[in-house]
């Protein structure tokens, strides 16, 4: 029986992928084999000795201590693209909110009082304050062309916008999916200078933290709309407030409320609802649960943010051995020696590395003894060993 600890509300459709005769799933579990979570912060969580896998039912993993997990030989999985449509729809909504001044116009309408005739008279007299602009022909700048950025860029193109995109690490898959008319930018600054509306779709990393700051805003096109449905830390809120006060920015639409932004004219802050649709929550939970289950039951790895992709169909007549180790010379030799010294034959084997980690899946003809697993666990550079029957 595998034990899966849940943080946050994970969609039942996802949890149903873990058959209860083989998986105990609860938010109360001690000594979990795996964790399923959304945005719960794990940085101060003491990683249990028993933990073998982490499944993020979503895209961003900045709430998870990925390096600490790697050092313990624990793969972290996420759900790439599973909530991209939900975020795209909210970003497009955010562009309309900003272009048509919908939030202040709505607040103004709500503030009207008196008879219908008086309210109508004031509305007609004041509506010029909320004159907006239309999207066709305007330039949208997309920073980060992954699952969400590509969806947003393509949707904006189909609305008649010119689109300029920046992503120095764009994947071949994203490049294939991108509308042909999207123009390539060579820097964040180029996007800031060229676009009427800029939208951010990068992960929060050491490299992207504070990406939009005072200096960047100083080079922004006058009266720009900025959308941030990526992460709070990518944008300096103090600089946003200054940019709005100076007229450099027209509107800041984001998914991350803060004390600095609260009550500021030109700010529309939503409560991190980019992925909060029933469809996205289901898609993410199903993907993360499937990945974690596959890893626990077979050792196979797909959509991990810290481990190599590795899928080996089961072979041989016995146990499967999996070993995570530092990516240094002679580890494979030591793994095969440990198996051979126990008089066992290797039926099939697959080894892949990613950065400082290497992962091996070894199918054995016969039953692995506890001695083989213990010998490997004691080998310098080995981070995790599992025997799957
Ligand atoms: N508001 C929400 O509810 C919500 C929902 C989903 C995702 N997100 C956030 O959005 C981020 C992006 O999601 P995604 O699914 O598109 O991820 P993704 O991994 O598919 O795409 C991220 C893209 O950013 C690019 N990138 C990385 N560093 C960059 C840099 N310095 N400059 C330009 N591009 C850079 C990558 O090459 C990649 O193509 C997530 O990491 C998450 O933080 C928020
Ligand atoms: O990175 C993500 O997928 C989003 O921020 C969604 O987070 P949530 O699962 O907490 O809604």
From TrEMBL:
The keyword Translocase does not apply. Gene3D superfamilies: 3.30.70.260, NAD(P)-binding Rossmann-like Domain. It catalyses: (2R)-3-phosphoglycerate + NAD(+) = 3-phosphooxypyruvate + NADH + H(+); (R)-2-hydroxyglutarate + NAD(+) = 2-oxoglutarate + NADH + H(+). Residues 320-389 form the ACT domain. The keyword Oxidoreductase applies. Keywords: NAD, Oxidoreductase. Pathway: Amino-acid biosynthesis; L-serine biosynthesis; L-serine from 3-phospho-D-glycerate: step 1/3. It holds the Pfam family 2-Hacid_dh. Its EC number is 1.1.1.399, 1.1.1.95. InterPro entries: ACT-like_dom_sf, ACT_dom, D-isomer_2_OHA_DH_cat_dom, D-isomer_DH_CS1, D-isomer_DH_NAD-bd, NAD(P)-bd_dom_sf. Catalyzes the reversible oxidation of 3-phospho-D-glycerate to 3-phosphonooxypyruvate, the first step of the phosphorylated L-serine biosynthesis pathway. Also catalyzes the reversible oxidation of 2-hydroxyglutarate to 2-oxoglutarate. Belongs to the D-isomer specific 2-hydroxyacid dehydrogenase family. This is D-3-phosphoglycerate dehydrogenase. The lineage of its organism: Bacteria, Pseudomonadati, Pseudomonadota, Gammaproteobacteria, Chromatiales.
